[in-house]
Amino acid sequence: MTVTARIDSRRRAARLVTEASAPAVSLAILLPLVGWHSAGATVNGLLLGLAGTVFAAVVPMTYIVANVRRGRLTDHHVGVREQRRTPLLVGLASVLVGSVVLMLLGAGREMVALMVAGTSGLVVSIVVSHWWKMSLHTAVAAGSVIILALVFGPWLLLATLLLVPIGWSRVVLADHTVPQVVGGALIGGTVAAIVFSAVA
């Protein structure tokens, strides 16, 4: 295999990992699981988790994709730091509305805690992104792992190993530096741990 072929192969693998670990994907897994557990492993809880997914992942991602198509954003990962503010604010507004809706629908304490943690994470991301391009991939992934460990048990902390390929993919694609992926993981994990534990 030539050097060029090896580089192309690495980039293809990195792209696959990046797409599979996108924040919207992580949230689409996290919310139904927590909703299901929060409501005593019932279908109703699963449905509430899916409703939360609409507000936390589907609405923000729909906004981003629509603006990529209009040429207002460069890509669906919003790789340009200066373009992040508005999509993050849209995400924040959507999550706030979703939190109110879920509370009115009688969502369990863990589900509410998750939405509050998500809101807090978005606020921190908006502030940090004003000056620094931290990785939202690793931030959301780390926060998701921490919350799953708090809900289902500490053995799930083993999933933190997944942060290594996720961070690697972001660096290989030149979307982030090593400090940005490490910083994102530390910030996302810390906010999730503090806020979720306090509310739940």
Account of the protein in words:
The protein is mainly alpha-helical. It has one domain. The chain contains eight helices and no strands. It is globular, with a radius of gyration of 17 Å.
Short description:
The chain has 200 residues and is an all-alpha fold. It is 76% helix and 0% strand.
Largest pleated sheet: none
State the domain count. Answer: 1
Strand tally is 0
Order of helices and strands: HHHHHHHH
- How much is the radius of gyration in Å? 17 Å
Count the DSSP helices.
8
Cα-to-Cα separation, first versus last residue: 52 Å
Instruction: Assign an overall shape.
Output: globular
Query: Strand portion, in percent?
Result: under 5%
Low-confidence stretches are none
The structure class reads: mainly alpha
- Mean pLDDT score: 93
Work out the helicity level: over 70%
Helix and strand arrangement:
Layout: H1 3-20, H2 23-38, H3 43-69, H4 85-104, H5 109-129, H6 136-152, H7 163-172, H8 178-199
Helix pairs in contact: 1-7, 2-3, 2-5, 2-6, 3-4, 4-5, 5-6, 5-8, 6-7, 6-8, 7-8
Key traits:
200 residues; mainly alpha
